[in-house]
């Protein structure tokens, strides 16, 4: 007897972690895992959420798993790259405002 365990993130068990798995995971967002072996609960905390999505995106082996502009969600619903750009824009605006005075 052979038991095959899918790799972490391979929700549809097709041998790869790709956009198909991401779609299955996001369809179940903000729900409870259906048990300790729920393939959608990548971090095993009993919830299917942004932390699981972040783990899946890191393991993605196909196109389409990340966002178009390469932004990264750190699992708490915040996009680190976008947050950094927003902070830079605010700081730049503050400097430009001081320069005008």
List the helices and strands and how they pair.
Layout: H1 19-27, E1 31-32, E2 47-48, H2 50-59, H3 80-100
Antiparallel strand pairs: 1-2
Helix pairs in contact: 1-2
Helical proportion, percent range = 25-40%
Strand proportion: under 5%
Order of helices and strands: HEEHH
Derived structural class: mainly alpha
What's the number of domains?
Answer: 1
Give me the number of helical elements: 3
**What is the strand arrangement across the widest sheet?**
1-2
Description:
This protein has 101 residues and is mainly alpha-helical. The chain has one domain. Helix content is 40%, strand content 4%. The protein is built from 3 helices and 2 strands. A two-stranded antiparallel sheet has the order 1-2. The termini are far apart. About 15% of the residues have low confidence.
Keywords for this structure?
2 strands, 3 helices, mainly alpha, 101 residues, two-stranded antiparallel ribbon, single chain
Summarize the structure.
Helix content is 40%, strand content 4%.
